[in-house]
Write a structure and sequence with these properties.
Length: 444
Protein backbone atom coordinates (compact mmCIF):
# COMPACT_ATOMS: atom_id res chain seq x y z
CA UNK A 1 0.00 0.00 0.00
CA UNK A 2 1.08 3.44 -0.91
CA UNK A 3 1.02 4.84 2.60
CA UNK A 4 3.35 2.29 4.11
CA UNK A 5 6.41 4.08 3.00
CA UNK A 6 8.18 3.48 6.24
CA UNK A 7 9.53 0.67 8.26
CA UNK A 8 8.32 0.48 11.76
CA UNK A 9 8.43 -1.56 14.91
CA UNK A 10 10.88 -4.34 15.11
CA UNK A 11 9.12 -7.52 15.94
CA UNK A 12 11.98 -9.90 15.58
CA UNK A 13 15.68 -9.67 15.93
CA UNK A 14 17.60 -12.77 15.12
CA UNK A 15 21.29 -13.07 15.30
CA UNK A 16 22.70 -15.83 13.26
CA UNK A 17 26.19 -17.12 13.19
CA UNK A 18 28.17 -18.08 10.20
CA UNK A 19 31.25 -17.21 8.33
CA UNK A 20 30.33 -15.36 5.23
CA UNK A 21 33.13 -12.94 5.83
CA UNK A 22 36.58 -14.10 6.64
CA UNK A 23 36.99 -13.54 10.30
CA UNK A 24 39.06 -10.82 11.63
CA UNK A 25 39.96 -9.34 14.87
CA UNK A 26 37.65 -6.91 16.57
CA UNK A 27 38.97 -4.31 18.92
CA UNK A 28 37.37 -4.92 22.26
CA UNK A 29 35.78 -2.15 24.15
CA UNK A 30 36.42 -2.19 27.83
CA UNK A 31 33.18 -1.35 29.54
CA UNK A 32 33.72 0.83 32.55
CA UNK A 33 31.55 0.62 35.55
CA UNK A 34 29.02 3.27 34.92
CA UNK A 35 28.25 4.05 38.53
CA UNK A 36 31.86 4.82 39.28
CA UNK A 37 31.81 7.61 36.76
CA UNK A 38 29.02 9.49 38.35
CA UNK A 39 28.07 12.05 37.31
CA UNK A 40 27.89 11.22 33.66
CA UNK A 41 29.60 13.93 31.76
CA UNK A 42 27.29 14.80 29.10
CA UNK A 43 24.78 14.53 26.34
CA UNK A 44 24.93 14.56 22.57
CA UNK A 45 22.40 16.23 20.31
CA UNK A 46 21.71 15.68 16.62
CA UNK A 47 19.65 17.74 14.20
CA UNK A 48 16.78 15.75 12.70
CA UNK A 49 15.51 16.04 9.12
CA UNK A 50 12.33 14.72 7.58
CA UNK A 51 8.58 14.95 8.04
CA UNK A 52 5.46 12.81 8.33
CA UNK A 53 4.12 13.79 4.94
CA UNK A 54 5.18 13.47 2.19
CA UNK A 55 8.44 11.80 3.27
CA UNK A 56 7.12 9.57 6.03
CA UNK A 57 10.29 9.49 8.09
CA UNK A 58 12.67 11.48 10.24
CA UNK A 59 16.40 11.01 9.97
CA UNK A 60 19.63 11.82 11.73
CA UNK A 61 22.97 12.06 9.96
CA UNK A 62 25.61 10.13 11.83
CA UNK A 63 29.35 10.20 11.37
CA UNK A 64 30.87 6.74 11.37
CA UNK A 65 34.41 5.48 10.96
CA UNK A 66 37.80 6.98 10.45
CA UNK A 67 37.96 9.18 8.53
CA UNK A 68 34.27 9.64 9.28
CA UNK A 69 31.64 9.28 6.60
CA UNK A 70 28.09 10.56 6.90
CA UNK A 71 25.14 8.18 6.98
CA UNK A 72 21.55 9.29 6.89
CA UNK A 73 19.63 7.04 9.27
CA UNK A 74 15.96 6.61 9.94
CA UNK A 75 15.33 7.14 13.66
CA UNK A 76 13.42 4.23 15.12
CA UNK A 77 12.43 3.97 18.76
CA UNK A 78 10.72 0.69 17.84
CA UNK A 79 13.98 -1.21 17.31
CA UNK A 80 17.41 -1.51 18.89
CA UNK A 81 19.95 -2.29 16.29
CA UNK A 82 21.55 0.43 14.21
CA UNK A 83 22.63 -0.68 10.74
CA UNK A 84 23.98 0.90 7.61
CA UNK A 85 24.05 -0.37 4.05
CA UNK A 86 27.13 -2.49 3.60
CA UNK A 87 29.79 -2.35 0.95
CA UNK A 88 29.99 -6.08 0.64
CA UNK A 89 28.29 -7.86 -2.21
CA UNK A 90 24.94 -6.35 -1.38
CA UNK A 91 21.35 -7.05 -2.23
CA UNK A 92 18.97 -4.21 -1.52
CA UNK A 93 21.56 -1.48 -1.14
CA UNK A 94 20.01 1.66 -2.58
CA UNK A 95 22.96 4.01 -2.20
CA UNK A 96 25.88 4.58 -4.53
CA UNK A 97 28.94 2.57 -3.75
CA UNK A 98 30.86 5.41 -2.11
CA UNK A 99 28.10 5.97 0.42
CA UNK A 100 28.12 2.41 1.68
CA UNK A 101 30.00 1.29 4.77
CA UNK A 102 33.06 -0.79 4.03
CA UNK A 103 33.96 -3.33 6.72
CA UNK A 104 37.71 -3.50 7.29
CA UNK A 105 38.86 -6.19 9.65
CA UNK A 106 36.47 -4.96 12.30
CA UNK A 107 33.86 -7.69 12.50
CA UNK A 108 32.35 -8.40 15.89
CA UNK A 109 32.96 -11.99 16.88
CA UNK A 110 30.29 -14.50 17.67
CA UNK A 111 31.73 -14.96 21.16
CA UNK A 112 31.51 -11.22 21.85
CA UNK A 113 29.19 -10.43 24.74
CA UNK A 114 27.24 -8.06 22.58
CA UNK A 115 26.52 -10.77 20.06
CA UNK A 116 25.24 -13.12 22.73
CA UNK A 117 23.34 -10.35 24.45
CA UNK A 118 21.14 -9.56 21.52
CA UNK A 119 20.33 -13.09 20.55
CA UNK A 120 16.74 -13.41 21.62
CA UNK A 121 16.41 -17.16 21.56
CA UNK A 122 18.42 -19.29 23.92
CA UNK A 123 20.28 -21.23 21.27
CA UNK A 124 23.13 -18.80 20.93
CA UNK A 125 26.16 -20.85 20.15
CA UNK A 126 29.27 -20.31 18.17
CA UNK A 127 30.60 -23.14 16.06
CA UNK A 128 33.97 -21.58 16.26
CA UNK A 129 35.10 -18.71 18.44
CA UNK A 130 36.25 -17.08 15.25
CA UNK A 131 32.79 -16.90 13.76
CA UNK A 132 31.44 -13.55 12.84
CA UNK A 133 28.24 -12.23 14.39
CA UNK A 134 25.46 -12.21 11.85
CA UNK A 135 22.20 -10.45 12.50
CA UNK A 136 18.81 -10.30 10.93
CA UNK A 137 16.29 -7.70 11.85
CA UNK A 138 12.74 -7.81 10.60
CA UNK A 139 10.30 -4.94 10.86
CA UNK A 140 6.57 -5.21 11.31
CA UNK A 141 5.96 -3.94 7.80
CA UNK A 142 7.98 -6.97 6.60
CA UNK A 143 11.00 -4.96 5.60
CA UNK A 144 14.22 -6.52 6.84
CA UNK A 145 17.97 -6.24 6.98
CA UNK A 146 20.47 -9.04 7.16
CA UNK A 147 24.12 -8.48 7.78
CA UNK A 148 27.05 -8.72 10.07
CA UNK A 149 27.98 -6.79 13.19
CA UNK A 150 31.03 -4.58 12.91
CA UNK A 151 32.63 -2.24 15.38
CA UNK A 152 33.93 1.20 14.50
CA UNK A 153 34.41 4.61 15.98
CA UNK A 154 31.45 6.93 16.03
CA UNK A 155 32.72 10.42 16.76
CA UNK A 156 30.46 12.39 19.05
CA UNK A 157 30.66 15.92 20.27
CA UNK A 158 29.30 16.11 23.77
CA UNK A 159 27.65 19.04 25.47
CA UNK A 160 30.60 19.33 27.87
CA UNK A 161 32.76 20.21 24.89
CA UNK A 162 34.66 16.95 24.58
CA UNK A 163 34.83 15.05 21.32
CA UNK A 164 34.87 11.30 21.85
CA UNK A 165 35.50 8.47 19.43
CA UNK A 166 33.90 5.50 21.16
CA UNK A 167 34.06 2.14 19.42
CA UNK A 168 30.50 1.07 18.84
CA UNK A 169 29.04 -2.08 17.32
CA UNK A 170 26.42 -1.76 14.61
CA UNK A 171 25.13 -3.73 11.69
CA UNK A 172 26.54 -3.73 8.20
CA UNK A 173 23.50 -4.77 6.18
CA UNK A 174 24.15 -6.61 2.91
CA UNK A 175 20.68 -7.98 2.24
CA UNK A 176 17.75 -5.61 2.65
CA UNK A 177 14.15 -6.11 1.76
CA UNK A 178 11.71 -3.26 1.62
CA UNK A 179 8.02 -3.63 2.17
CA UNK A 180 5.40 -3.88 -0.52
CA UNK A 181 5.31 -1.44 -3.36
CA UNK A 182 6.72 1.34 -1.21
CA UNK A 183 9.30 3.45 -2.92
CA UNK A 184 12.84 2.62 -1.97
CA UNK A 185 14.10 4.49 1.04
CA UNK A 186 16.44 7.39 0.57
CA UNK A 187 18.09 6.60 3.89
CA UNK A 188 21.25 4.56 4.38
CA UNK A 189 19.96 2.58 7.32
CA UNK A 190 18.26 2.72 10.69
CA UNK A 191 19.26 4.32 13.98
CA UNK A 192 17.73 2.02 16.59
CA UNK A 193 16.78 3.91 19.74
CA UNK A 194 15.32 0.96 21.65
CA UNK A 195 16.83 -0.05 24.95
CA UNK A 196 18.19 -3.46 24.04
CA UNK A 197 21.89 -4.01 24.58
CA UNK A 198 22.80 -3.55 20.93
CA UNK A 199 21.53 -0.01 20.68
CA UNK A 200 24.14 2.72 20.34
CA UNK A 201 22.77 4.41 23.42
CA UNK A 202 23.06 1.25 25.56
CA UNK A 203 26.63 0.86 24.39
CA UNK A 204 27.51 4.47 25.19
CA UNK A 205 25.91 3.95 28.57
CA UNK A 206 27.82 0.79 29.34
CA UNK A 207 31.02 2.56 28.34
CA UNK A 208 30.15 5.00 31.11
CA UNK A 209 29.79 7.95 28.76
CA UNK A 210 26.15 8.97 28.65
CA UNK A 211 23.07 8.40 30.76
CA UNK A 212 20.70 5.84 29.36
CA UNK A 213 18.19 8.42 28.26
CA UNK A 214 17.15 9.31 24.72
CA UNK A 215 14.69 11.90 23.53
CA UNK A 216 13.33 13.32 20.32
CA UNK A 217 11.51 16.43 19.35
CA UNK A 218 9.94 16.07 15.89
CA UNK A 219 8.66 19.27 14.39
CA UNK A 220 5.36 19.43 12.56
CA UNK A 221 7.17 21.83 10.19
CA UNK A 222 9.68 19.08 9.45
CA UNK A 223 13.03 18.58 11.15
CA UNK A 224 13.66 18.70 14.87
CA UNK A 225 16.33 17.22 17.11
CA UNK A 226 17.32 14.04 18.90
CA UNK A 227 19.46 13.68 22.00
CA UNK A 228 21.24 11.08 24.07
CA UNK A 229 21.67 11.87 27.77
CA UNK A 230 19.61 14.03 30.05
CA UNK A 231 20.98 17.55 29.58
CA UNK A 232 18.11 18.71 27.39
CA UNK A 233 15.29 17.61 29.65
CA UNK A 234 13.40 20.63 30.99
CA UNK A 235 13.40 20.71 34.76
CA UNK A 236 9.64 21.05 35.02
CA UNK A 237 6.44 20.49 33.14
CA UNK A 238 7.12 16.95 32.01
CA UNK A 239 4.56 14.24 32.47
CA UNK A 240 6.38 11.03 33.42
CA UNK A 241 4.67 7.68 33.11
CA UNK A 242 6.26 4.33 34.00
CA UNK A 243 7.10 2.06 31.08
CA UNK A 244 5.29 -1.24 30.97
CA UNK A 245 7.66 -3.90 32.30
CA UNK A 246 7.00 -5.97 29.20
CA UNK A 247 8.37 -3.11 27.20
CA UNK A 248 11.90 -3.24 28.46
CA UNK A 249 14.25 -4.93 26.02
CA UNK A 250 11.71 -4.73 23.24
CA UNK A 251 9.65 -1.62 22.72
CA UNK A 252 8.86 1.47 24.64
CA UNK A 253 5.28 1.06 25.72
CA UNK A 254 2.83 2.60 28.13
CA UNK A 255 -0.62 1.67 29.33
CA UNK A 256 -3.35 1.06 30.07
CA UNK A 257 -4.78 4.24 28.63
CA UNK A 258 -8.23 5.41 27.80
CA UNK A 259 -8.98 7.47 24.77
CA UNK A 260 -10.74 10.78 25.11
CA UNK A 261 -12.48 12.52 22.23
CA UNK A 262 -12.88 16.24 22.71
CA UNK A 263 -12.10 15.74 26.40
CA UNK A 264 -14.78 13.11 26.91
CA UNK A 265 -14.29 9.40 27.61
CA UNK A 266 -14.94 6.97 24.76
CA UNK A 267 -15.51 3.23 24.59
CA UNK A 268 -11.76 2.80 24.06
CA UNK A 269 -10.09 1.79 27.32
CA UNK A 270 -7.21 -0.38 28.35
CA UNK A 271 -4.99 0.55 25.42
CA UNK A 272 -1.33 -0.35 25.55
CA UNK A 273 0.65 1.88 23.24
CA UNK A 274 4.06 1.48 21.71
CA UNK A 275 5.97 4.71 21.10
CA UNK A 276 7.51 4.22 17.70
CA UNK A 277 9.34 7.00 15.92
CA UNK A 278 9.96 4.51 13.11
CA UNK A 279 6.30 4.56 12.16
CA UNK A 280 4.95 7.51 10.19
CA UNK A 281 1.37 7.05 11.29
CA UNK A 282 -0.52 5.88 14.36
CA UNK A 283 -2.08 2.43 14.41
CA UNK A 284 -4.92 1.29 16.65
CA UNK A 285 -6.32 -2.22 16.88
CA UNK A 286 -9.52 -2.66 14.83
CA UNK A 287 -11.85 -2.20 17.73
CA UNK A 288 -10.31 1.09 18.85
CA UNK A 289 -9.84 2.21 15.27
CA UNK A 290 -13.49 1.75 14.44
CA UNK A 291 -14.56 3.68 17.51
CA UNK A 292 -12.30 6.59 16.54
CA UNK A 293 -13.44 6.51 12.94
CA UNK A 294 -17.12 6.60 13.98
CA UNK A 295 -16.51 9.45 16.38
CA UNK A 296 -14.71 11.51 13.77
CA UNK A 297 -17.26 10.78 11.04
CA UNK A 298 -20.23 11.52 13.27
CA UNK A 299 -18.65 14.73 14.38
CA UNK A 300 -18.25 15.85 10.77
CA UNK A 301 -21.97 15.47 10.04
CA UNK A 302 -23.42 18.76 8.87
CA UNK A 303 -19.97 20.20 8.26
CA UNK A 304 -18.66 21.08 4.85
CA UNK A 305 -16.33 18.17 4.38
CA UNK A 306 -17.05 15.34 1.96
CA UNK A 307 -15.33 12.00 1.75
CA UNK A 308 -12.69 12.07 -0.96
CA UNK A 309 -12.46 8.61 -2.41
CA UNK A 310 -10.03 9.43 -5.20
CA UNK A 311 -7.13 10.37 -2.90
CA UNK A 312 -5.01 7.27 -2.50
CA UNK A 313 -2.65 8.79 0.06
CA UNK A 314 -4.42 7.19 3.00
CA UNK A 315 -7.60 5.12 3.32
CA UNK A 316 -9.83 7.84 4.82
CA UNK A 317 -9.77 11.34 3.34
CA UNK A 318 -12.09 14.32 3.03
CA UNK A 319 -12.23 17.30 0.74
CA UNK A 320 -13.58 20.79 1.28
CA UNK A 321 -15.01 23.41 -1.05
CA UNK A 322 -11.48 24.64 -1.71
CA UNK A 323 -8.34 22.60 -1.48
CA UNK A 324 -6.54 22.75 1.85
CA UNK A 325 -2.97 23.85 2.32
CA UNK A 326 -2.26 22.67 5.83
CA UNK A 327 -3.93 21.08 8.82
CA UNK A 328 -4.51 24.53 10.28
CA UNK A 329 -7.07 25.10 7.49
CA UNK A 330 -9.17 22.23 8.83
CA UNK A 331 -8.48 22.38 12.54
CA UNK A 332 -11.89 23.76 13.31
CA UNK A 333 -13.62 20.75 11.81
CA UNK A 334 -11.85 18.25 14.02
CA UNK A 335 -11.72 17.66 17.77
CA UNK A 336 -8.65 16.85 19.81
CA UNK A 337 -8.00 13.32 21.00
CA UNK A 338 -6.20 12.52 24.22
CA UNK A 339 -4.79 9.49 25.95
CA UNK A 340 -5.23 9.26 29.69
CA UNK A 341 -2.85 6.89 31.40
CA UNK A 342 -4.63 5.46 34.39
CA UNK A 343 -1.73 4.72 36.65
CA UNK A 344 -0.44 8.24 36.96
CA UNK A 345 -2.42 11.25 38.03
CA UNK A 346 -2.71 13.86 35.29
CA UNK A 347 -0.87 11.69 32.84
CA UNK A 348 -2.48 12.90 29.71
CA UNK A 349 -1.20 13.04 26.20
CA UNK A 350 -3.07 15.48 24.04
CA UNK A 351 -3.32 14.59 20.36
CA UNK A 352 -4.54 17.73 18.60
CA UNK A 353 -5.86 17.52 15.01
CA UNK A 354 -2.27 18.02 13.81
CA UNK A 355 -1.43 14.81 15.65
CA UNK A 356 -3.74 12.62 13.61
CA UNK A 357 -4.41 14.38 10.30
CA UNK A 358 -2.37 15.22 7.23
CA UNK A 359 -3.16 17.42 4.26
CA UNK A 360 -2.18 15.71 1.04
CA UNK A 361 -0.72 17.11 -2.15
CA UNK A 362 -4.24 16.92 -3.60
CA UNK A 363 -5.44 19.38 -0.96
CA UNK A 364 -7.51 16.86 0.96
CA UNK A 365 -7.33 16.06 4.64
CA UNK A 366 -6.73 12.42 5.64
CA UNK A 367 -6.90 10.46 8.85
CA UNK A 368 -3.40 9.51 9.99
CA UNK A 369 -4.68 6.84 12.33
CA UNK A 370 -4.81 3.44 10.68
CA UNK A 371 -6.24 0.02 11.43
CA UNK A 372 -3.28 -2.00 12.68
CA UNK A 373 -5.17 -5.28 12.94
CA UNK A 374 -5.82 -5.08 9.23
CA UNK A 375 -2.10 -5.09 8.47
CA UNK A 376 -1.25 -7.86 10.89
CA UNK A 377 -0.39 -5.97 14.05
CA UNK A 378 -3.05 -7.83 16.01
CA UNK A 379 -3.86 -6.02 19.20
CA UNK A 380 -0.81 -3.78 19.20
CA UNK A 381 -1.29 -0.04 19.15
CA UNK A 382 1.44 2.22 17.87
CA UNK A 383 1.91 5.92 18.37
CA UNK A 384 3.81 7.00 15.29
CA UNK A 385 5.55 10.21 14.28
CA UNK A 386 2.31 11.96 13.42
CA UNK A 387 1.16 11.86 17.05
CA UNK A 388 4.59 12.49 18.55
CA UNK A 389 5.15 15.76 16.65
CA UNK A 390 5.76 19.04 18.43
CA UNK A 391 6.48 17.30 21.71
CA UNK A 392 9.72 16.49 23.38
CA UNK A 393 9.40 12.75 24.07
CA UNK A 394 11.93 11.27 26.47
CA UNK A 395 12.66 7.60 27.01
CA UNK A 396 14.37 7.36 30.37
CA UNK A 397 15.78 3.84 30.63
CA UNK A 398 17.42 4.62 33.96
CA UNK A 399 14.12 5.20 35.67
CA UNK A 400 12.04 3.11 33.24
CA UNK A 401 9.73 5.94 32.39
CA UNK A 402 8.59 7.91 29.38
CA UNK A 403 7.95 11.63 29.55
CA UNK A 404 6.66 14.27 27.19
CA UNK A 405 6.06 17.96 27.04
CA UNK A 406 4.77 20.23 24.25
CA UNK A 407 7.76 21.88 22.69
CA UNK A 408 8.91 23.99 19.86
CA UNK A 409 11.08 21.46 18.07
CA UNK A 410 12.33 23.91 15.45
CA UNK A 411 15.40 24.87 17.40
CA UNK A 412 17.75 22.99 19.63
CA UNK A 413 17.37 24.41 23.13
CA UNK A 414 20.23 26.02 24.96
CA UNK A 415 21.24 24.17 28.03
CA UNK A 416 22.24 25.71 31.30
CA UNK A 417 25.10 23.69 32.51
CA UNK A 418 26.10 23.88 36.09
CA UNK A 419 29.03 21.74 35.11
CA UNK A 420 32.38 23.33 35.95
CA UNK A 421 30.50 26.17 37.56
CA UNK A 422 29.83 27.84 34.26
CA UNK A 423 27.59 27.80 31.27
CA UNK A 424 28.63 27.21 27.77
CA UNK A 425 30.64 29.95 26.19
CA UNK A 426 28.38 30.03 23.17
CA UNK A 427 24.76 29.16 22.62
CA UNK A 428 24.18 25.64 21.61
CA UNK A 429 24.24 25.54 17.88
CA UNK A 430 23.18 22.86 15.50
CA UNK A 431 26.73 21.74 14.80
CA UNK A 432 26.62 19.23 17.57
CA UNK A 433 26.41 15.57 16.91
CA UNK A 434 27.18 16.19 13.32
CA UNK A 435 30.29 18.18 13.35
CA UNK A 436 33.11 18.96 11.09
CA UNK A 437 35.55 16.26 10.34
CA UNK A 438 38.18 16.82 12.96
CA UNK A 439 40.39 13.99 11.94
CA UNK A 440 43.74 14.88 10.52
CA UNK A 441 43.77 14.61 6.78
CA UNK A 442 44.78 11.23 5.59
CA UNK A 443 47.17 11.27 2.71
CA UNK A 444 45.70 9.57 -0.28
C1 LIG B 1 32.83 15.10 29.08
O1 LIG B 1 32.14 13.89 29.34
C2 LIG B 1 32.81 12.72 28.91
C3 LIG B 1 31.90 11.53 29.10
O2 LIG B 1 31.31 11.48 30.34
C4 LIG B 1 34.13 12.58 29.65
O3 LIG B 1 34.82 11.43 29.19
C5 LIG B 1 34.97 13.81 29.38
O4 LIG B 1 36.15 13.77 30.13
C6 LIG B 1 34.19 15.07 29.77
N1 LIG B 1 34.93 16.25 29.36
C7 LIG B 1 35.10 17.30 30.12
C8 LIG B 1 35.83 18.47 29.50
O5 LIG B 1 34.68 17.35 31.27
Amino acid sequence: MDFQNKSFLTLFLFLLFSSIFPLSFSAANKPLHADKLHPFGSSAVFPVHGNVYPLGYYTVTLNIGYPPKLYDLDIDSGSDLTWVQCDAPCKGCTKPHDQLYKPKNNLVQCVDQLCAGVHLTSDHHCDSPDDQCDYEVEYADHGSSLGVLVRDSIPLQLTNGSVLHPNIAFGCGYDQKYSGSASLPSTTGVLGLGNGRTSILSQLHSLGLIRNVVGHCLSGQGGGFLFFGDDFIPSSGIVWTPMLPSSSEKHYSLGPAELLFNGKPTAVKGLELIFDSGSSYTYFNSQAYNVVLDLVINDLKGKQLKRATEDASLPICWKGAKSFKSVSDVKNYFKPLALRFKKVKNSHMLIPPEGYLIVTKHGNVCLGILDGTEIGLGYLNILGDISLQDKMVIYDNERQQIGWISSNCDRIPNIDRDFDGGGFPHPYAANLGIFEDRCPAISQ
